[in-house]
Amino acid sequence: MNKGKKTQRVDKILGHLGIGSRADLKKMVKQGRVSLNGQVLKDSGAQADPYMDRIEVDGEPVFYREFIYIMLHKPAGVISATEDTRDRTVIDLLPDKYKVFNPFPVGRLDKDTEGLLLLTNDGQLAHDLLSPRKHVPKTYYADVRGLIGEDEVVRFEQGVELDDGYVTLPAKLVITGQGHDGDGPVSRILLTISEGKFHQVKRMFEAVGSKVLYLKRVSMGRLALDEALPKGAFRELTEDELALLR
């Protein structure tokens, strides 16, 4: 939609934002609860410019937007889908005021993987971020079994052959620390990949004889996970963050 160019029915504008059904909105207008540019609205079918005109419901200004962009700190145990008959999905974590936009996850994180997931209803942006031709980098933090060292850094830089024979694009592996658990040594790593094959990070470590114990996506393109967001929490992107994605 071209901002400032098109008018729409007020009930359509408010319906798009999830404020009520057409019948609900008709009743709200009758009750004098909706105003347009400071005047109490008499007709729910009146035309307004959603970007330029001031619409208020119960005295609160309504901010129209066509698209929403949500950063979710995905917890383990929910799946990256819009609906599922067995498991909770990332959309189930959102309140109705966001669900009315019909957002979907941009790409997917495995059920047991945590971290940054973008939810939007902007199909073009999602396509650009996921297009194999664009090679948008994604960085993951992981705890992996064993002592990962310079050999693995070099192998990942050259691309590793997965279990199906596919050789990955060059990836950047950084070792951030090492420790132990009850079963032996554990390496803490950051891995940046620029493609998104099925279970790719897990399969890359399997290819070098290791196993991912914990996995969390920390960035996608230039957008980094807000570490102040607890697991399962979400917020809309700021204008600056949106600009980073574009």
List keywords for this structure.
alpha+beta, 246 residues, 15 strands, 4-stranded antiparallel sheet, 7 helices, 21% helix, 9-stranded mixed sheet
Structural class estimated from helices and strands: alpha+beta
Any low-confidence stretches, pLDDT <50, length ≥5?
A: none
Q: Average pLDDT across residues?
A: 93
Reported for the largest beta sheet, the result is:
9 strands, mixed
Distance between the termini: 18 Å
Order of helices and strands: EHHEEEEEEHEEHEHEEHEEEH
Return Rg in Å: 23 Å
The beta-strand count equals 15
Question: Strand share of the residues?
Answer: 25-35%
Question: Which percent range fits the helix content?
Answer: 10-25%
Shape: elongated
Number of helices: 7
Task: Itemize the secondary structure elements and their pairings.
Elements: E1 8-9, H1 10-16, H2 22-30, E2 34-36, E3 39-40, E4 47-48, E5 55-57, E6 60-61, E7 69-74, H3 96-99, E8 104-105, E9 114-120, H4 123-130, E10 138-145, H5 150-158, E11 172-181, E12 184-193, H6 200-207, E13 212-220, E14 223-224, E15 234-236, H7 239-245
Parallel strand pairs: 9-13
Antiparallel strand pairs: 1-4, 2-3, 2-5, 5-6, 7-9, 7-15, 8-9, 10-12, 10-13, 11-12, 13-14
